[in-house]
Structure formats: C-alpha cells, structure tokens
Write a structure and sequence with these properties.
Deoxyribonuclease I, Chain A; 16 strands; cytoplasm; metal ion binding; Nocturnin; magnesium; biological rhythms
Length: 396
C-alpha cells in the first residue's frame, strides 16, 4: 500500500508558530537564531518562504551556537572515520549518509524507562541541541532518521534553513500519542542536501505483512545527483520492535524490498521485470533485528544486490559491529546491533565508515546520557558511484 505525499507539504503556519513557541524554550546563542526565525514566521505566508528569506545557512555558526547552549556538558564522543582502501582513486562525487534513531522525545521521557539516565538529560531543551550538534558535526548529504516527533517545529525548519529538503512519514498508531504532553506521532524522516541532489520522486509507505497494513512505515525517495546526473534511490525505515516479532519484521522487510524494486524499475533503464537496475540503492534503518535474524538474511540475499556498509569496519569485512545501541532498562542491559546502512554493492563503493565509540566513552550508565541524546548511535558512511566497466574490446 503506497501513500504519496508532496515533500513540500507542511502544517498550517498558525499551528506551526503555536507549537514552536511551546516546545522550543531556549537561551544563549540559540535564542538569537530561533528568535529571528519565529519573528519572521509571524509575518510570512509559508514556512518554506520564511526559511528561504531567513537564510539560516551557516552550519558552522549553528554548530557553535549548539555548543554554547550546551555549556559545560561532558565531552562529546570522539569518533574517527575508517577509510576503505580498495585501490581506487578518490571519489569525484562523495555521498555522505547518516542513519540514526534519534529517540522520540515522548518515548524517552514517558515509556522507555532508561533507569540509569538522569531525567535532566532527557529534557527536550537539552536533547535538541545534542541532536543538531551530531548532525552538524558530520554534515551528511543524506540524513535518515527514525523516532522523529519534533519534525515540524524543530528539525524541518532548522535543516531547511541549511539547505535540506525533506519528507516525513508518521506511524499510523504512534506510541508517542499515549504519552501525556506529547508532540504528535513519531515517524521516519528523510533529508537531502539540495545543493547536491534534486528531487525526482517520493513515496511514503505503510509497510504490510501478508497484505495486512502494520504500524511501521518507510520513506522512499528518488534523487538525482547534480554533478553526475546519476539517480539514487534512498529509503529510511523502522521495523517492529521487541522479541517475538521476528516473523513480522521479516514480512515488513520483504514488503519494503518489493517497493524498492518497483521504484527502481520505474525509473531505471533496464528491461521491464528485471530483478536489478542501474539505479543504486541506499536503505537506512533501525531494523530492530540482530544480524542472525531472517529479515537481515532477506536483505543479504535480495536480488537487488545489497550489502551492509558497517561490515567494512571489521577485519574480515563480513562482521557487523558489536553494538549500535546500548542501554539499561528495568529488564536489564541491552547491547546489540539493530541499525544498518544497506547499499548496492555493484553500483556504489564504500569509501569511509565512522567508527563506534568505545565502552569507556559511552560510560557505565550507557545511553542516552548528558553526552549523547539517543539510545542508538549514529551510523555515517561515505559512498561514491562506481564507474561502469567497459565491455571487452570496446574502445576507451
């Protein structure tokens, strides 16, 4: 089942301003930024025109303001990129991708019960700066987020001011709505840098299992690289959580793969019905599945030719990281790998992968914390388009 939305659709301006004022109390350097933004909002006809006029376009300055607002917090994680040396020359048009479950605000404060995390570290007045700081530190060209419940009042306007276009798909029955004082449903959001890519097509998908709609969603977007003219299909998703639902995650993964295959066939140049396409795929998500689960095997064995980028961090190139999430709940400690960046291994090359913070950096109370705003760690990879190999005997 497809749900198609315009990537430029937004809530009415009046509602935007009211929500913005109620959920964004700020101080320090960020007050100037948001104060100017809300002042302009009150006299403009659309959010999009406001952001274009406001031109909050300096990520370095915004990063400085975030750091100023966070004050004397503990040092942020020091993470390095591991560069993959496969003998090829430097990429001509690198693609930096970030995958991150940012932790829905309503769930962090209301339902997730992080027993070792101080309540002050979970406040939105603090977490929003940490989230923006993480994004601005790595400056991805494509940003895939899950558990987004502050899209319209924070992430969309701020990132639009930095040149990102985006699409958001909320869960039909978001658990955030069960939390008093919630900011609306959580969902998946996909952002892309408009200076690097132009929009071609988009679909918001409600994932199904055996033809029955579920509560999980995906955003699928077709983009065209402005420098190379090549198309790229990107998807972000968040599959069903918790043990006992492995069969449902597997069915949801199969449904997403089917949608992806349909979209790349629609825009590709290959023969109709061909299992593969010349359009590269990037699939980011919190799969809520460890690497031994069936949904992981389905993606590995898919005729779309997908591989998991974070395996490149391992010595043998075939093992996922030990963890992408590490938290302590009343039921105990959870340290495992649930998040992935899948890519078309025949058409994309992995050039660099951001490593994981150490156990010492994360600390004994685990995540989230005063240092880090989510129980999931961000994944960041640099990709580039592979050049097509010429057929034997063809003139170079």
């Amino acid at each position: 089942m497809f749900y198609i939305f315009s990537p430029s659709s937004h809530t009415p301006l009046t509602n935007f301003v009211l929500v913005f004022k109620s959920v964004c109390p700020m101080g320090g350097g960020a007050t100037r930024l948001y104060g100017a933004l809300t002042q302009t909002l009150s006299s403009s006809n659309s959010v999009r025109s406001v952001l274009q006029e406001q031109k909050v376009s300096d990520p370095v300055e915004l990063l400085r303001q975030c750091e100023e607002a966070l004050g004397d917090r503990p040092p942020r994680f020091h993470r390095k990129f591991t560069h993959i040396n496969d003998g090829d020359s430097a990429p001509s048009s690198p693609i930096r991708v970030m995958q991150w479950n940012i932790l829905a605000q309503a769930l962090g404060e209301g339902l997730d019960s992080f027993v070792q995390c101080p309540p002050e570290a979970l406040s939105w007045s603090r977490r929003k700066y940490l989230i923006l700081e993480e994004i601005l530190t790595y400056r991805p060209h494509i940003l895939c987020l899950q558990e987004v419940d502050h899209y319209y009042d924070t992430l969309q306007p701020v990132l639009a001011g930095l040149g990102y276009s985006s699409n958001f798909c909320p869960k039909p029955w978001s658990p955030c709505l069960d939390v008093e004082g919630n900011n609306g449903p959580d969902g998946c959001a996909l952002f892309f840098d408009q200076t690097r890519y132009e929009f071609v097509d988009s679909a918001n998908v409600r994932l199904s299992a055996m033809r029955i709609p579920t509560n999980q969603v995906a955003v699928v977007m077709m983009l065209r690289c402005r420098s190379t003219g090549k198309c790229l299909c990107v998807a972000v998703t968040h599959l069903k959580a918790r043990s006992g639902w492995e069969w449902l995650r597997s069915a949801q993964g199969s449904d997403l793969l089917r949608h992806l295959q349909n979209l790349v066939q629609k825009h590709g140049s290959g023969p109709t019905g061909a299992p593969n396409s010349d359009i590269p795929l990037l699939v980011c998500g919190d799969f809520n599945a460890i690497p031994t689960e069936e949904v992981y095997r389905r993606f590995t064995a898919s005729p779309l030719g997908l591989d998991s980028a974070y395996k490149k961090l391992s010595q043998d190139g075939s093992t996922e990281p030990e963890y992408t999430t590490w938290k302590i709940r009343p039921t105990g400690e959870c340290c495992t790998t649930l998040d992935y960046i899948w890519y078309s291994q025949d058409t994309l090359r992995v050039d660099a992968v951001l490593d994981m913070p150490t156990e010492e950096q994360i600390g004994p109370n685990r995540l989230p914390s005063f240092s880090y705003p989510s129980d999931h760690l961000s994944l960041v990879c640099d990709f580039s388009f592979k050049e097509k190999e010429l057929a034997p005997g063809r003139i170079h």
